[in-house]
Design brief:
It is built from 11 helices and 14 strands. By secondary structure, the chain is of the alpha/beta class. The chain has 2 domains: 195 residues, Rossmann fold (3-Layer(aba) Sandwich), CATH 3.40.50; 95 residues, UDP-galactose 4-epimerase, domain 1 (Alpha-Beta Complex), CATH 3.90.25. Helix 1 links the parallel strand 1 and strand 2. The radius of gyration is 19 Å and the shape is globular.
């Protein structure tokens, strides 16, 4: 299968932590009118979504989903709509419906309309008991302990099935925890990594819901956006894997993150008070092997913990001084 031209893109879940920033970058690259943002939530008319078209899309409604594809002559779906890990544990039925039925609809619509590509991210939540936690390999047992992880395993298998069975160009990557200076996270187990920076800039102590020694793979948002678009633009014929690329950048413990923040905010206090999310975190890798992504499409991150902390604190401190720290509210 040769690579088709990517011209008109629909981003589902565009009001989420990653989707909101991805839309901005895609519009910079492909033109604002060629990237349609979509979500169940209506965006602030003064935000980035106002720079281009927006449609309210319920991804579990295949007919409505398809009408938007037709209206805008979409040839590429970037399928970010999902219920994340912590929220998924509170409502597993909703997580399955949005994460699996929504993706199945996207893949079936890709067949119906002969789309160029569907990209649907996966997550390190696919890993669980029985897989090596350090340097977790690309190919390993997948026995997740959360509904979110179960839906992401199903999503990876669906993408690979539609590639083999129907020739759909479906691809995806396993995101680690994502840290952003622009938007707050929306219900994931790694949210503490972002929340810590905000608390430090506000001069507050932070009550952390995982232990000090809890180590997880993380990534700064600019690398997340870069990796996503790099995979979108990779030559299909050069890919061995499709829906399940490990994507790595850095790993650190909650205590190491706090220590990094103290280099810019001396005296920052963290109180460790683990809750139900500790068990979820302990089922995930501490680091991952992303050599397949590096070999097949040239993945290479730009940020480590030190450079991420420097950039995060600079950006958040500037916004705090302007009285505009929380530009986005949590989902």
């Amino acid at each position: 299968m040769g690579k088709k031209n990517i011209r008109r893109i629909l981003v589902t879940g565009s009001e989420g932590q990653i989707g909101s920033e991805l839309v901005t970058e895609l519009r910079d690259r492909f033109g604002a009118g060629n990237v349609v943002a979509s979500d169940l939530r209506t965006p602030d008319v003064t935000g980035d979504a106002a720079a281009g078209p927006f449609e309210r899309v319920d991804v579990t409604d295949r007919e409505g989903f398809g009408k938007v594809l037709q209206r805008y002559e979409i040839d590429t779906i970037v399928h970010m709509a999902a219920i994340l890990s912590a929220k998924g544990e509170r409502d597993p039925g909703l997580a399955w419906n949005v994460n699996v039925t929504g993706l199945l609809n996207a893949l079936e619509l890709a067949r119906d309309f002969d789309l160029a590509q569907v990209l649907c991210p996966s997550s390190i939540a696919v890993f669980g008991a029985g897989c090596p936690r350090e340097n977790t390999p690309q190919e390993t047992v997948l026995i997740p302990s959360t509904m979110y992880g179960i839906t992401k395993v199903a999503g990876e298998l669906l993408c690979d099935y539609y590639v083999r069975r129907f020739g759909v160009d479906a691809r995806g990557l396993r995101y680690p925890g994502i840290v952003s200076a622009e938007t707050l996270p929306g219900g994931g187990t790694t949210d503490y990594a972002v929340e810590m920076y905000y608390a430090a800039v506000e001069g507050k102590a932070y009550r952390c819901f995982v232990r000090e020694d809890t180590r997880l793979p993380m990534m700064y948002m600019p690398d997340c956006i870069k990796g996503t678009i790099d995979l979108m633009e990779a030559d299909f014929d050069g890919l061995v894997h499709h829906g399940n690329f490990n994507l790595g950048a850095m790993s650190f413990s909650a205590g190491e993150l706090a220590a990094s923040i103290r280099t810019g905010v001396p005296g920052f206090e963290v109180i460790y008070d683990p809750d139900y999310r500790q068990e979820i975190a302990e089922s995930w890798p501490t680091s991952i092997d992303d050599s397949a992504a590096r070999q097949e499409w040239g993945w290479e991150p730009s940020y480590d913990l030190r450079s991420m902390t420097k950039d995060m604190l600079e950006k958040l401190t500037a916004r705090h001084a302007e009285g505009n720290l929380y530009r986005e509210q949590p989902a």
